[in-house]
Amino acid sequence: MITGHGGNVEFLAGQLGCAVNEIADMSSNLNPLGPPDGFEKFLADHLRSLERLPEADASTLTHTFCGKRDIDPETTIAANGTTWFIYTLPLALASEKVLISGPTYSDYRDGCISLGISPSFLTADTDADFCPDLSLISRKAGEFDTVFLCNPNNPTGSFLSKNELVEVVKQHPDTMFVLDESYLPFVPNAEKHSLVPRTDCKNLIVLSSMSKIFTVPGMRIGFLTAHPDTVEKVMRFYQPWSVNALAQKAGIYLLETHSDDSPFLVRTRKFIQEERELFRKNLENVSGIRLFPSAASFLLARVTCGLTAEQVCQRVGRNKILIRNCSNFRGLGDGKFVRFSLKDHRLNLKLADILRSELTHAL
């Protein structure tokens, strides 16, 4: 647990003998535009909120989130990031048989294992561009009490339609579906694709995160939305003051100032879409690498030349750029997969140039 995540810039800096701030982190899936303008000043102006206890249940933060989504606050919990939910849900749901759609984020598996549950996996393959087979998931879902899905998926970037997901959920009322939408804010018109407003699916849990889109992973702000009966089960394990005072104020501020069509979110989505396509175009004629379709702020690639993923990471790392070796993702363990998280235009072009040079020389 807590091994193999992206963002280990300290390790690469130590290897190169340079300062941490000299490393360009293209391994962590954060908004390349950074936090919205004015956010740092807001934090500075509210630092003294740390001198007081926060609301024990983050009620105002929860109500603000629900007000923006036009849903009942009885259906939502705010906690210190979606990770708390991921590790708590198998316990709260008394899960025994868990199915995970992959390749995907390892904490779904680790959360189960920490509670003595050995999950099963349905792993999409390269022939389908790692897009999950919902018909297969539907055929298997009835054998399990809990199913984990991520949409858009990390690390593959695959994206499933809202209507198809709802259809599968409704076909299996006795199976609880946990849908992680942490990367959905990067998709244009994200709220139209979200399953958060679904009140007719009692067996659906949706996780939402503010960490990635607003570049605040250290603040730990996440939400769970589900039927009130499910919320009640999860709240039995909720710890008072789970969300710190500054995080609560920051979350409220961000929710109130950035609706789905706010300039910051529109600009972010346009930037991601343009940079993703430009990055792909710069590598489309390069032998030795295959990029997979992505709806998110990152791209998964398979190295098809003689190099391994580790060797590619090392060669890119010499240029003080950190990318993600995906070998510890179940289903990507052949040592050939890497993930690139988009950053600013200059860095994206620099990485494409480095990859083109290194892969060409390796052929």
How far apart are the termini?
A: 36 Å
* Low-confidence segments: none
CATH topology of the largest domain: Aspartate Aminotransferase, domain 2
List the helices and strands in order: HEHHEHEHEHEHEHEEHHHEEHEEEH
Q: CATH H level of the largest domain: which superfamily?
A: Type I PLP-dependent aspartate aminotransferase-like (Major domain)
CATH class of the largest domain: Alpha Beta
Describe the protein's architecture and organization.
This protein has 363 residues and is of the alpha/beta class. It folds into two domains: 9-30 and 262-362, Aspartate Aminotransferase, domain 1 (Alpha-Beta Complex); 51-257, Aspartate Aminotransferase, domain 2 (3-Layer(aba) Sandwich). The chain has helices at 9-16, 39-45, 59-69, 82-92, 106-113, 134-141, 162-171, 190-193, 228-235, 245-257, 263-283, 309-317, 345-362; strands at residues 24-25, 76-79, 98-102, 120-123, 146-150, 176-180, 204-209, 222-226, 289-291, 298-303, 321-322, 324-325, 337-341. The protein has a seven-stranded mixed sheet with strand order 2-8-7-6-5-3-4, with helices on both faces. Strand 6, helix 8 and strand 7 form a beta-alpha-beta unit. Helix 4 packs across helix 5 (106-113) and helix 11 runs parallel beside helix 13. The longest helix is centred in the last third of the chain and has 21 residues, at 263-283. 45% of the residues are buried. The mean pLDDT is 95.
